[in-house]
Each structure stands twice: as C-alpha cells, then as structure tokens.
Amino acid sequence: MGPRSCWWAASPTAAASDGRARAKSNATKHERTMLPTFLGIGPPKAASTWLYQLLASHPDVAMSREKELCFFSRHYSRGLGWYEAFFPEDEEERMYRAVGEVTPEYLYAGEEAVRRMGAMPSIQKLILIARHPIERAVSAHAHRVRSDNFAGGFEDFIEEFPHEVACGDYGRHVATYLRHFKRDQLLVLVFERLFKDVEATKRTLARFLGLDAQRFPPEAGYAVVNPGYVPRFQNVFALARSLLHWLKGGRVLPWLRRLGLVKGAGCLLGRQSKEKALPSMRPATRRRLARRYAGEVKRLEALTGLDLAEWKKTLP
Questions:
Q1: Are 68 and 214 part of one and the same domain?
Q2: Are 27 and 90 in contact, with CB atoms under 8 Å apart?
Q3: Is 232 helix (H, G, I), strand (E, B) or coil?
Q4: Which of 206, 226, 246 is the last residue of a domain?
C-alpha cells in the first residue's frame, strides 16, 4: 500500500499557492502600513511639544502615540516593526491626509540618521522650528536645572552637555538635511514669530502639509505648553522621567496611561510653577557663543532664504 495522504495535509501545489498568497498579502499589508509622511525635527526647547499638540488637534493628521520616538537616531536597531507600532493601523489610512512624529534631537542626529530618514519613501516633509541659538541654550540649561536637578551654572552646563551648544549650529545641520531632501521639503519656522500670529502659523503649516487650516480647532495653538516649574521631589521626578522613557515602545506605558497612573504620578510628585533662580551667563561666554553662531545664522539664511534680522542684532 502506498503512503496514505493525511486528510489535513495540503498538497505541495496547494501549500505553495497558499504560501504565495500569504506572502502577497503580507507584502500588500506592509505597503499599506502607516508610516510618517512628515517629521518635526526640532530642536529641543523650541516649541516641539506645542507643534506636536497643535498638529495632533487637526482631524486630518495622525500623530505618533508618543512624542520623541528617536527612531532614526537612537532606536533604529529595534526595527521597523517597533516604529510602526506607534502609528495608527493601516486600515485607518484613508482617514488622514498626513501622518507625523516629532523628535527634537533629529536636528543634530548626524548624517547617518538623516540618510535613514531620506531612505524612507513615505517621509516627504520636514518641519524645523529655529530659535535664537543662545536663547535656546539658556532655555535648555533652565530645563536641566528645574527638571533634572542640575546644580551647575551655564558654563558647567555647556561643558557637560556640549551637544547643547552644537544644537545651535543651524546652518551645518540644515546643510546635512539638504543633502538628502529637496529644499521645498523643508519648512523652517522662526520660534520668535510663532506666537505673534498663531492663525498665520497654522495656515503656513496647513499649506505645507496639504491640510485645510479651517479644520484646526479654534483654540488650537493658544494654550501654554511646558511652562517652567520645579518638581517638589526633583530626584524622584528625574527617576520617573527616565522610567517613562525606558517603557516607551512597550505595552505597559499605554496601559498605565489608560488607568490614569502616569497623570496621577505627576500630581503626586507635585509640579510647582514657581521659578527657580538660575546663575547668569558670563558676558565672555555670551560673546564667545555669539561669534560661533554668527556664521551659522548667515549660512541658514543663505540655505533657506530666511531673513533673521532680529537674531543678528545680538550677533557680531
């Protein structure tokens, strides 16, 4: 008697056909997976949270479920599947005209990270909010003092965190992006002008992303975002922030958010809106930074066509 075929075993032809069908289905699904069509590339302390919340308020925009994914800079080795998990399911694709994420450190992430962004076909738009480089560094120092319990003065800060100075080299960073993207794919907004006319800013963003500006909620863009505060228990607060960053990308953090535990922890740690005195920057340090940034600002103007006259008043 010849070998008896099992009733549950598919024939080789059927199995091959089924395998091809699954492969085709997976390929189709992968092609339809929602990935960002635009990125907010920073820098830090330049209204990145405001930008994220403003765009998330538009009904035709899908923002990543967490801000600051750092995929192209820190977490690329985790793979595309990790990144995709932060965006809506592909079945919802027809609901949105734009999909995005905002990671402030992308601005200075370097050539390899920018190359990775340029190699992702879905990414067609970049948004940069440029803030006066010295004032941005001062704000970054204040953030470290108030949120991370940093005890040093400004000079100690830039020595310990040299990337905070390099972050303001806008000309160099934009030149890196323009090696991988076309000029019309980059929108550069000036931080100092954002809130002078919020409605004009919303129209500019909508035009760049192909949206209807009228569909922004009327109140969008007017709320104060990330006001200065001093946590009541700074060391515990810093530890909690590190823990939240570590949990990002897993299944635990969304569950904690749904239960209200993340918000509750913030209330328990007691954010206080009072100011904390900061050591002033030495005049010699300001002059040195002004000399450093003067050429970068001129280069940014040349690359983008911006007129940054208000910045140049404080630069040589």
A1: yes
A2: no
A3: coil
A4: 226
> In a 3-state reduction of DSSP, which class is residue 8?
coil
User: How does pLDDT run along the chain (316 residues), one tens digit per residue?
Assistant: 443 333 223 333 333 333 333 333 333 444 446 899 999 999 999 999 999 999 999 999 999 999 999 999 999 999 999 999 999 887 666 789 999 999 999 999 999 999 999 999 999 999 999 999 999 999 999 999 888 888 899 999 999 999 999 999 999 999 999 999 999 999 999 999 999 999 999 999 999 999 999 999 999 999 987 665 555 555 555 565 556 555 555 555 555 555 555 454 545 444 554 555 677 899 999 999 999 999 999 999 999 999 999 999 999 8
Q: Give the domain extent around 264.
A: 229-274
Whether 209 and 98 have beta carbons less than 8 Å apart is answered as yes
Look at residue 188 and tell me if it is in a domain.
Answer: yes
The answer to the question of residue 75 being in a domain is yes
If asked whether residues 251 and 221 sit together in one domain, one would say no
Q: Are both 128 and 233 inside the same structural domain? A: no
Domains: count for the chain: 2
- Label residue 65 left, alpha or beta by phi (over 0 means left) and psi (-120 to 50 means alpha): alpha
